[in-house]
Amino acid sequence: MLSNILLKSLWDFRKAALYWFISIFLLALYIIFVLSSIELNAFQTIIDSFPKALTQFIAGESGIDFGSIEGFLNAQVFTIMAPIFAISVAVNSGGKSTALEETNQSLDIILSTPITREKFLIQKISSMIIKTLFISSVHWISYYLLCKLFSENISAEGLFAICLNLFLMGISFGMIAIYVGTLNGNSTNAIALAGGMALVSYLIANIAPLVDSLDTTKYFSLFYYYKSGDPLKYGIHNWHWVPFILTIIMFFTLSLMQFKKRNLQ
């Protein structure tokens, strides 16, 4: 099994995958059931009385829209909960990809088998990507099927778009965690730094629009590209996926370079 790091990593994830699936599905079931039982316009009347700055801080630049199922899911699921799920899985997997093996002093044993450093790292990255894809796909499947079950109209394209952004953002922070792990071999530092960057990114995206002098800083936040343009309502943005791809490619390249030259003895 040591010769196939990817399969072993996914095999070790099997129980966690089941727990994630059950948790996300039950949460989706609860939310869609509530949505099918209430009058959303009544909630929107209350939200409209809130200061605009408050709604932007809670739900981002687009604010809170409880007048539609897309707006409700944007505010209640895809602003905080879904990103936490996807980023936590990606960052945890990425942070431990090489650093945990170093901490456990098992990396030199693994690399003594017929597997190169590049192949080892690529398989670890592939594992992180598949795990993050699983989390994003469960969100799409759960909310799409349950909306159909409860006769709630939701755009399949919009739901796919927000879940695609969720997937890309998760991988982006996961790649950052992998890179940090190749720098110092400390999984705790890798997870903490990447997770901290995700939190800062979220705060920048939500706070920057409140202050005119800081508004341009939002373009340095991955969370801005994740939800800006309201993908759940309007589908895939023309270019907001580009910053994610560039981030992934950059940290993928840096990770490979660093891991190849790292003294692991």
Explain what you see.
The mean pLDDT is 87. With 265 residues, this protein is mostly helical. The chain has helices at 5-12, 14-37, 40-47, 52-59, 69-76, 81-97, 99-103, 107-111, 117-149, 156-184, 187-207, 222-227, 231-234, 242-261. The protein starts with a helix and ends with a helix. Helix content is 74%, strand content 0%. The protein has one domain. Helix 6 runs antiparallel to helix 11 (187-207) and helix 10 (156-184) runs parallel beside helix 14.
List the helices and strands and how they pair.
Elements lengths: L4 H8 L1 H24 L2 H8 L4 H8 L9 H8 L4 H17 L1 H5 L3 H5 L5 H33 L6 H29 L2 H21 L14 H6 L3 H4 L7 H20 L4
Rg from alpha-carbon coordinates: 20 Å
In terms of DSSP E residues, the strand content is under 5%
Domain tally:
1
Distance between the termini: 23 Å
Quick one: how many beta strands? 0
Poorly predicted sequence stretches spanning 5 or more consecutive residues: none
Structural class: mainly alpha
Q: Helix count? A: 14
Q: Mean pLDDT score, rounded?
A: 87
Order of helices and strands: HHHHHHHHHHHHHH
Helix content: over 70%
Shape: globular
Largest sheet: none
